[in-house]
Amino acid sequence: MGARLGRECLYVPSCRLGLYLALRHWCPRGGRILMSPVNDDVILFVVLAAGLRPVQAPLSATDGSIDVDAVPESVWDGLCAVLTTNLYGNPDPAGRLRERCDRLGIALVEDAAHAIGSETGGRPVGTFGNAAVFSLSKHVGAKAGGFLAVADPALRPRLEHARDALLDPARITAELAYAVRPYAESAVRGLRLAPAARWTLRQLGLQERDEIRMPLRPAELRRALATAPSLTGFHSWVRVDMHDYRTAPGRVRARRVGRLLGRLDQRLAAHRAGTERLLATRWAAPAAAENPLQPLFRVPLLVADRDAAVAALARRHITVGYLYDPPLDSYAGEAFTDPSPSPGGAVWFARHALPVDPLLAGPVIDILDSAGTAPAGERPGG
């Protein structure tokens, strides 16, 4: 990955741990950081754990990227950093954000979890910021690991030391569970036992979401804020969907990650081909087809009734994940984040975006056609 990006890269057990590491290094305690409100709630809790105040940005209703021009000057003046999202692999305007951060003398951190292989301005996502974090669970399909890419290679020893101080030791039980997970998931899919599997995960305490957003638990969260910056007080939020997010990898995990990374170019080509098919449908944002084709992790189709489309796909055993509704400012409230000054784009996008796996483009198109799924109506502003 260092060769692909031309940057020093440091392995981390998860993208979320890499992000915490970056925020602690580049942002002062109590600083304010601009971020997207259409994002995984885990990222909000990582920002809070780092001792920062999240500031929700206005978004484009077309693809969920940060709308730079809609951020008021009063908001820019109070920031210590900007955190991009590159939602589903659609790049944020990293070049413009880099210019703005340089003028203000603040850090740019790129969350590229969805964006391995995406480019903007002729450069890979992850090469604009002071730091960028990537996930190996997404395009690579390793279901573990990530890496932190940094512009200044001289920082590697310091960041490596900070990473090691945060790691839990490798556990044989975690390695065994990781080794058998692909075979168990394959059996569940083959036998169509997904409901039973979800029930079992809930009984084991590994399925912690009954809704799109996890329970906020505001009283506990207020107490956790007093412990920041620290992951300890926020562990019950940050670990959701990935209990071994800070566990050092063993040999089984490292070998599988390496093997799957060797197939990355084939995976990216498959994602690019599926993305092209989905962007040619009537549910794609009109402007999306005019942009450079990216190997999107998920393609956000814009549909009139997102919940009905999700149900139609579920009836055919296709699960839709990576939904981020409501936006984080509505979810967390002003007690824990500064709301977006222009929330309309984020609200509209979160309500209508249907994130589709491009590797399932053909079946999904057939199902949505059969269900009579209508495209979303007019976006805010026209």
TL;DR?
It is built from 16 helices and eleven strands. The protein has helices spanning 2-5, 15-26, 41-49, 73-76, 94-104, 156-166, 172-191, 194-203, 218-225, 235-238, 251-261, 264-279, 306-315, 328-332, 344-352, 361-370, and strands at 8-12, 32-35, 53-56, 81-84, 107-111, 119-120, 123-124, 131-135, 146-150, 299-302, 353-356. The chain starts with a helix and ends in a 12-residue tail after the last helix.
CATH architecture of the domain at 260-370: Alpha-Beta Complex
Helix content: 40-55%
Along the chain, the helix and strand elements come as HEHEHEHEHEEEEEHHHHHHHEHHHEH
Gyration radius, rounded: 20 Å
Q: What's the count of strands?
A: 11
Work out the helix count.
Answer: 16
Q: What is the name of the CATH topology of the domain at 260-370?
A: Aspartate Aminotransferase, domain 1
Poorly predicted regions: 201-205
| Order of adjacent strands in the largest pleated sheet | 1-9-8-5-4-2-3
Largest sheet features: 7 strands, mixed
Beta strand % = 5-15%
Span between termini: 41 Å
Subunit arrangement of the protein: single chain
Question: How much is the average pLDDT?
Answer: 91
CATH class of the domain at 260-370: Alpha Beta
Structural class: alpha/beta
- Taken from the alpha-carbon principal axes, the silhouette is globular
